[in-house]
């Protein structure tokens, strides 16, 4: 009997699994830009635990294993910053990244009154850019951070994302 992937709010007990998965997933990005000092690879467990307390963190589970995660927070102007969308390499290309993106958008709109969503992607991260565009994000700017890396800023209005959700309020971070 096979297991299905479930998506739910992260708990404090997920912190170590999320950090290990983040480290695994960002190896490809680091290699793409020849930079292993990127923040997802240097983030500490304490820093991640602090994020779990402040941000809307959603995880995908296969049984008890965390196989995907995404984080979001909303600024005073109603813009939600979505960050660190990760999916275990063995689970990629099956729609899980899109499901996580939809889930965090729904929660940010319902619980934190997000009016628009913003995320960043490296200019060479073709798969990420393709995923974001397929979910309605449009490039709105590019910032060159180094000779090897430019960050593309993508945005979309929350109205389009909220219409896709069921409107059921959910808690972003659960404590156990």
Low-confidence regions: 160-171
In terms of DSSP E residues, the strand content is 25-35%
Number of helices: 6
**Global outline:** globular
Q: Whole-number average pLDDT?
A: 90
How many DSSP-defined strands?
Answer: 7
The CATH architecture name reads 3-Layer(aba) Sandwich
Would you list the SSEs in sequence order as H and E?
EHHHEEEHEHEEH
Derived from helix and strand composition plus strand pairing, the structural class reads: alpha+beta
Strand order of the largest sheet: 1-2-3-4-5-7-6
Q: What is the CATH class? A: Alpha Beta
Total of domains: 1
Distance between the termini: 29 Å
CATH superfamily: Gcn5-related N-acetyltransferase (GNAT)
Offer a quick outline of the entry:
This protein is of the alpha+beta class and 176 residues long.
Features of the shown structure:
6 helices; seven-stranded mixed β-sheet; Aminopeptidase; 176 residues; alpha+beta; globular
What's the topology here?
Elements (H helix, E strand, L loop, with lengths): L4 E5 L5 H19 L5 H4 L2 H10 L1 E7 L2 E10 L4 E9 L8 H17 L3 E7 L3 H9 L3 E7 L5 E8 H7 L12
Descriptive overview:
The chain has 176 residues and is an alpha+beta fold. It is 38% helix and 30% strand. It has six helices and seven strands, in the order βαααβββαβαββα. The chain has helices at residues 15-33, 39-42, 45-54, 96-112, 126-134, 158-164, and strands at 5-9, 56-62, 65-74, 79-87, 116-122, 138-144, 150-157. It has a seven-stranded mixed sheet, with helices on both faces. The chain starts with a strand and ends in a 12-residue tail after the last helix. Mean pLDDT is 90; it is low at 160-171.
């Amino acid at each position: 009997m096979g297991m299905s992937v479930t998506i739910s709010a992260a708990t404090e007990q997920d912190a170590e699994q999320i950090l290990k998965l983040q480290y695994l997933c960002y190896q490809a990005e680091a290699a793409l830009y020849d930079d292993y000092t990127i923040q997802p690879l240097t983030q500490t467990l304490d820093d991640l635990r602090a994020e779990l307390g402040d941000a809307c963190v959603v995880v995908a589970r296969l049984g008890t294993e965390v196989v995907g995660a995404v984080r979001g927070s909303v600024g005073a102007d109603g813009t939600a910053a979505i960050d660190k969308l990760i999916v275990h390499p063995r689970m990629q290309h099956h729609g899980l990244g899109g499901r996580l993106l939809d889930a965090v958008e729904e929660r940010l709109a319902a619980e934190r009154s997000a009016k628009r969503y913003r995320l960043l992607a490296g200019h060479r991260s073709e798969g990420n850019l393709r995923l974001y565009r397929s979910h309605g994000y449009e490039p709105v700017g590019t910032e060159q951070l180094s000779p090897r890396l430019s960050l593309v800023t993508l945005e979309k209005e929350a109205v389009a994302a909220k219409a896709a959700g069921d409107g059921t309020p959910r808690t972003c971070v659960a404590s156990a």
